[in-house]
Amino acid sequence: MAETVKDISRKNRKIYAPAVDIFETANNILVIADMPGVDEKSVDITIEKNLLTIHGMIDSTTHDNLELAFSEYGVGDYQRAFSLSDEIDRSNIKATVKDGVLKLVLPKSEKIKTRKIEVIKET
Questions:
Q1: Cut 0.85: pTM above it
Q2: Across the beta sheet with 76-83, what order do the strands follow?
């Protein structure tokens, strides 16, 4: 599903919500987003207040001396936003991209991680 937005710098562009998988481990939340055609230079990730926004820009390819007769592949940008809880350590978020797949590692804050309390014998 895509919506068309008008942006002066990008003209009329379709915006797609990339499909994501979200995994949780004891220490991190892992977000994997499929954004075909996006590389590390064309991804913009921002955090404002509790909102994490992913934006991937795609440059449309043109074929010299060819006129498009039929198209099933939509070209556009990607954008997705997620609300972050206080459980996420915002200062240590890491992002990588390879072959159009963005991986975000959102570390959990130390204060919410499960920890074991040692019990000692009272003297």
A1: no
A2: 2-7, 11-16, 76-83, 51-56, 43-48
